[in-house]
UniProtKB/TrEMBL annotation:
Family matches, as SUPFAM superfamilies: HesB-like domain (SSF89360)
Classification via Pfam families: Fe-S_biosyn
Superkingdom in the source lineage: Bacteria
InterPro entries the record matches: ATAP, ATAP_core_dom, FeS_cluster_insertion_CS, HesB-like_dom_sf
Organism expressing this protein natively: Deinococcus hopiensis KR-140
PROSITE patterns: HESB
UniProt-recorded name of the protein: Iron-sulfur cluster assembly accessory protein
GO molecular function, one term: iron ion binding
BP term (GO), one: iron-sulfur cluster assembly
Length: 140
């Protein structure tokens, strides 16, 4: 496991692998406090699927697995597996609200295209992995 220390406690901040917005942190902390899981964090991951090739996923998780990167930002523990990290490096987890409700989203500087719903993306304009991703928005 690779761990990033509390960056707000250090004068010279290393570039974080992934971070969370202030509003996203408020929402995440509220959800985590109600989860009943001690030492839980937000696991952010990538899976194949969706209309653009990859899909974002998030879950409350109290486990840290071999190869995970753990980042503490704004009081929130963010956990990313080693396969997802290259696609998420530099991303910001945020919470957005609109007329259809609200939810977490990922602002990813590595995405070169995404679908209209914002839940799937492609990184290089190439075909979807394993031939997936030809379905509608958010399909798996």
């Amino acid at each position: 496991m690779t761990a990033t220390s509390f960056p707000e406690l250090h004068g010279d901040l290393p570039a974080q692998e992934i971070h969370i917005s202030e509003y996203g942190a408020q929402k995440a902390l509220a959800i985590l406090s109600q989860s009943g899981k001690e030492n839980a964090g937000v696991r952010v991951f990538i899976k194949s699927g969706g209309c653009s090739g990859y899909q974002y996923g998030m879950a409350i998780d109290d486990r840290e697995l071999e190869g995970d990167t753990v980042v503490y930002d704004r009081g929130v523990k963010l956990v990313v597996d080693h396969m997802s990290l290259p696609l998420l490096r530099g991303s910001e987890v945020d919470f957005v609200e609109n007329m259809m409700g609200g939810g977490f989203t990922v602002n990813n500087p590595n995405a070169t295209s995404s679908c209209g719903c914002g839940h799937s993306f492609r990184t290089d304009g190439s075909q979807s992995p394993d031939g997936q991703g030809s379905g509608g928005c958010g399909s798996a």
